TrEMBL record:
Residues 35-138 form the YNCE-like beta-propeller domain. This is YNCE-like beta-propeller domain-containing protein. It comes from the Bacteria. The lineage of its organism: Bacteria, Bacillati, Actinomycetota, Actinomycetes, Kitasatosporales. It comes from Kitasatospora cystarginea. Transmembrane segments: none annotated. It holds the Pfam family YNCE. The keyword Zinc-finger does not apply.
Length: 347
């Protein structure tokens, strides 16, 4: 048995995960098969910005207690903002005015004014906050509290918690449907995704998942959810109406985040082990390409996807990779802070 160590598993600090040798052999075999079937890009980035990409990218640096602000047009860091204790998940309001940051080490959410690049207030939430997600209109923030088995609902107009919803064990991340009516919470400790009615603020059911579901993304039509199962090295494609797994897609070792293209045609998966991002065609539910963002130890961790770029935090390398979705190659690699975790894109 081997042990793999990485930081930021959602409960704070360093996590040690045992991996049985048999499972490792299966994962390696799957990776070798995938290498024969799908094209792989080379991590030989240039610093050239992507055409038509504007705005700013915000990266939380978990062990540096900072947020890096990157000009998306130039791929240059334009500010480094002191943040709270062990900042992890981050979400930007639709107008780009504020960023909400989960401070895992202090059970707080920090509110960053993007005009001044200063923290304006902090809001107490549950223990071990990790993932954050805003409602489509930006009025509600949902916070996955991994240490409290709950989701805090924060009113962004008052910056007050208006509800605390119990969920299953070790919630790590949250997704919200396009109409804002439903939130989905990936519970790493109970192999499930809680379904939360945002009007009643109650859990109304659950979706199945694989081992250690750590991330969930919902298609634009609200029909399907994609769930990254970290220790199973799979992504589950789940029918939301039927609440059944339609397809289980093998990916690389340690998938920690899954994010959809704006049109829902692709699901991007950050894989800790091989240093890759897998690209799943959501029509065929097959891996259509892999993008190498670095060697093993790079630890691609979390994703933010726009129509013009795919951003990947590389926790082990201390960088942000910028992938061109047109050719699926790394266009730039930006040095950020220590142990980059979350990433979000704003105007």
């Amino acid at each position: 048995m081997r042990f793999r160590i990485h930081t930021g598993r959602g409960l704070g600090g360093i996590a040690v995960r045992p991996e049985p040798a048999a499972a490792i052999g299966l994962l390696l075999a799957g990776d070798l098969l995938a290498a024969r079937l799908i094209p792989a890009s080379s991590p030989s980035p240039s610093a050239a910005p992507l055409a038509g990409v504007t705005g700013h990218v915000y990266v939380t640096n978990q062990l540096g207690n900072t947020v890096s602000v990157i000009d998306a047009g130039t791929n240059k860091v334009v500010a480094t903002v002191p943040a709270g204790n062990a900042p992890e998940g981050i979400a930007i309001t639709p107008d780009g005015r504020y960023a909400y940051i989960a401070d895992n080490g202090s059970a707080m959410v920090s509110v960053l004014d993007t005009r001044t690049n200063k923290i304006t207030t902090t809001v107490p939430v549950g223990h071990g906050p990790t993932g954050v997600r805003l409602s489509p209109d930006g009025t509600c923030l949902y916070v996955a509290n991994g240490g409290s088995n709950s989701v805090s609902v924060l009113d962004t107009r008052t910056n007050r918690v208006t509800a605390t919803v119990p969920v299953d064990v070790s919630p790590v991340s949250v997704a919200v449907s396009r109409d804002g009516a439903t939130a989905y919470v990936a519970n790493a400790g109970s192999h499930s995704v809680s379904v939360l009615d945002t009007r009643t603020r109650r859990v109304v059911g659950s979706l199945p998942a694989g081992r250690s579901p750590v991330s969930v993304a919902v298609t634009p039509d609200g029909e399907s959810a994609y769930v990254a199962n970290e220790t199973a090295a799979t992504v589950s494609a789940v029918g939301i109406r039927t609440r059944t797994v339609a397809v289980t897609v093998p990916v690389g070792e340690g998938p920690f985040d899954v994010a959809l293209a704006p049109d829902g045609s692709r699901a991007y998966v950050a894989e800790l082990g091989p240093g890759n991002v897998s690209v799943i065609d959501t029509r065929s539910h097959r891996v259509s390409a892999t993008v190498a963002v670095g060697p093993p130890g790079t630890d691609p961790f979390n994703l933010a996807v726009t129509s013009g770029a795919v951003y990947v935090t590389n926790q082990g390398a201390g960088t942000l990779a910028v992938i061109d979705p047109k050719n699926l190659r790394v266009a730039a690699t930006v040095a950020v802070g220590t142990s980059p975790y979350g990433v979000a894109v704003g105007p």
